[in-house]
């Protein structure tokens, strides 16, 4: 009897753990949705719409860019994004090399590479930066996916753009 109860307890624990996992097809659809969201994010960079750029972040998200303080408040993120959006030379291209969704289906990350053209503050000339990014996404209570951690790391040395 004791063995049967123990086996029943183990089976119940396994089954309850399985219920917390998103099915593989749901995880694939989440991966696809995040790639589509990154495509929209890239279009928002192209339109230089700071409000649209900010809409990809959760209220408590962190944005970390090289050479800038980490932006952990909505006001700090808005200021950083507005500054970028005002740059006449801004051009952002990025693509995820990896998308992974937690088995729970409520957390995911995208990792990839970027190329950004911006204005060099020292020379006032265009410059090109390349590097990698890691964005952690969390499903919000309204069902939308928002970035909760967005970290950018520089790649090779800055390449000046010829006038």
Explain what this protein looks like in three dimensions:
- It is a single chain.
- The chain is of the alpha+beta class and 163 residues long.
- The protein has helices spanning 2-19, 24-47, 50-54, 74-86; strands at 57-64, 91-101, 107-119, 126-139, 145-154, 159-160.
- The chain is globular, with a radius of gyration of 21 Å.
- The termini are far apart.
- Mean pLDDT is 87; it is low at 3-19.
- Residues 37-146 form the DUF4440 domain.
- This is DUF4440 domain-containing protein.
- InterPro entries: DUF4440 (IPR027843), NTF2-like_dom_sf (IPR032710).
- Residues 1-24 form the signal peptide.
From the spread of the alpha carbons, the general shape counts as globular
Rg calc? 21 Å
Structural class: alpha+beta
Order of helices and strands: HHHEHEEEEE
pLDDT < 50 runs, ≥5 residues = 3-19
Largest sheet: 6 strands, mixed
CATH architecture: Roll
Q: Residue-averaged pLDDT, rounded?
A: 87
Question: DSSP strand (E) fraction?
Answer: 35-45%
Distance between the termini: 83 Å
As for the CATH topology, it is Nuclear Transport Factor 2, Chain: A
* Number of H/I helices: 4
Number of DSSP E strands? 6
Protein name: DUF4440 domain-containing protein
Keywords: Signal
InterPro entries: DUF4440, NTF2-like_dom_sf
Organism: Sphingomonas sinipercae
